[in-house]
Amino acid sequence: MSEDKRAPVRDPGSATPLPPPPGAAPAAASRFTAFGLAAEAEPIAPGLHIVATPIGNLKDITFRALGTLAAADAILAEDTRVTKVLLAHYGITTPLIAYHEHNAEQMRPRVLARLEAGEALALVSDAGTPLVSDPGYRLVEDALAHGIKVTSNPGPSAVLTALVVSGLPTDRFFFEGFLPTKSGPRRARLAALGDIPATLVLFESPRRLSEMLADAADILGERPAAVARELTKLYEEVRRDTLPALARSYADETPKGEIVVLIGPPPEGAKALSQADLDARIETALARHSVKDAAAIVSAATGQPKREVYARALQLAAARDEGGEGAP
């Protein structure tokens, strides 16, 4: 974008501004307001600017982000209604363009055409850092393929905000996003994630949280976990406990707001055991403990889900009581 920012002339049949006519008067400089003071935004280079926005508290925006949003030729927004609130708060009047999963395929060629014409466009999501659980990835991929410069304006992220207050290991983490909505596929995915030696970070909707935690407790067992809700907002809440305890806590509750679920890594040495190894551990525990206690001991020692260990312990105990050589 030229530093001499003059009012663009628009072709009524196109969303792309035409160059200003010779001798046109310069438009007012791009501005934003912060702390009650008006500031002039510096010109930004042509290309696609990925801009992180607050996940709840509007004060979490960076000065660089404000300047970029004010100086851009247009802002690509996941939901223009949401982004309008942010822009109004900071006195930014840059035009908005809806860009979301339902229109991305149609809009992407138009956006690329504007970028190739030398415009500076900003991409934002409803909250946080774009491209994390939103359709921006394909746009960035195509922009780079067309030789268009892509710049990141870092800032708020629900993933990292939740991780650092969870009380769980932060040296390794795996972001999964949303799990499948139906229990069967969700349990299968949780089982596939179970051996990853890292803290798991997931998004979940309030209405599915209870079912998701119950499935996670069944599949992953007594792992430490946290449910972070309404981060950076007035009613921010983080509950920390084991997965079974959190499942019980939310069994009859439908919380409000955006939710991040974090699940601790498997215990050391919790790599999947062979059935023979697991049975041997259970048999040893059964020799001195009740089925319930034996299952709890083996589950804690191996990281295997308590419910699955308990079911197997019942089978082995029943076979032993019948005088057999063991359950199949």
TrEMBL record:
HAMAP family: 16SrRNA_methyltr_I (MF_01877). Catalyzes the 2'-O-methylation of the ribose of cytidine 1402 (C1402) in 16S rRNA. Its EC number is 2.1.1.198. Residues 1-25 are annotated as: Disordered. InterPro entries: 4pyrrol_Mease, 4pyrrol_Methylase_sf, 4pyrrole_Mease_sub1, 4pyrrole_Mease_sub2, ATP-grasp, rRNA_ssu_MeTfrase_I, RsmI_HTH, SAM_MeTrfase_RsmI_CS. Belongs to the methyltransferase superfamily. RsmI family. Its main location: cytoplasm. It comes from the Bacteria. GO terms for molecular function: methyltransferase activity. Keywords: ATP-binding, Cytoplasm, Methyltransferase, Nucleotide-binding, rRNA processing, S-adenosyl-L-methionine, Transferase. Signal peptide: none annotated. It catalyses: cytidine(1402) in 16S rRNA + S-adenosyl-L-methionine = 2'-O-methylcytidine(1402) in 16S rRNA + S-adenosyl-L-homocysteine + H(+). It is found in: Cytoplasm. This is Ribosomal RNA small subunit methyltransferase I. It is an enzyme of class 2 (transferase). One of its GO terms (biological process) is methylation. Residues 84-315 form the ATP-grasp domain. It comes from Pseudochelatococcus lubricantis.
